[in-house]
Write a structure and sequence with these properties.
The protein is an alpha+beta fold and 195 residues long. The chain has one domain. 16% of the residues lie in helices and 30% in strands. It is globular and about 45 Å long.
Length: 195
């Protein structure tokens, strides 16, 4: 995925929204003091700059399996991937379960690899995905608010990785890696992503 297109689009959209007076329709929350927030409510977080937390909006696509566990923790079950080199059979798919505490702090990653060169990889990947979902027990699918993080496995970086601006016109991004298959930009509380 090219960052160039994102960097041109984000400032233009923000400018149009501000010029059109549409910021009230964006659903930005009124910042709250963490001492006054109700128990169990997600922490406040900045809507611009380097993110300390990002929202992930539960949907029927890449964020189909995000939500809360019975103990109040948060989870994100997903399928990262690594594309192989041209003509090579080193493409790999993964099943990744990321676990967070109630405040969105990263706690644990369970990651399984499925090389495409294995003839039964698709079936094995689907079975592992369903197993990881069952291991969560009773869950509630819903929007989550979690911190960016990264872990190293299989010689790759996995997670929701914060990327600093490369130019003065650029912005922060958080991308789901490997595969750069979800990309989040400010404001961090919307939970919407680019694919």
């Amino acid at each position: 995925m090219k960052y160039r297109a994102r960097t041109r689009l984000a400032p233009a959209v923000a400018t149009l929204l501000l010029a059109g007076g549409l910021t009230a329709a964006c659903g930005l929350p009124v910042p709250v003091d963490d001492h006054s927030r109700p128990a169990g409510a997600p922490p406040s977080y900045p809507t611009e700059g380097r993110p300390t937390r990002i929202a992930i909006h539960h949907d029927i696509f890449e964020a189909k399996h995000v939500g809360y566990t019975a103990d109040g923790g948060q989870f994100f079950l997903t399928r990262p991937f690594e594309l192989g080199t041209a003509g090579g059979n080193d493409t790999r798919d993964f099943v990744a379960l990321y676990l967070f505490d109630a405040q969105g702090r990263f706690r644990k990653a369970e990651i399984d690899a499925f090389p495409e060169s294995d003839p039964g990889h698709s079936s094995a990947e689907q079975k592992m995905y369903q197993q990881r979902l069952r291991e969560l027990g009773k869950v509630r699918f819903d929007d989550i608010v979690v911190e960016p993080f990264s872990v190293q496995r299989f010689g790759l970086t996995f997670g929701l990785v914060a990327r600093a601006p490369e130019t003065a016109d650029d912005t922060w991004w958080v991308t789901a890696e490997p595969g750069d298959y979800m990309a989040f930009a400010p404001p961090w509380d919307l939970g919407e992503y680019d694919t």
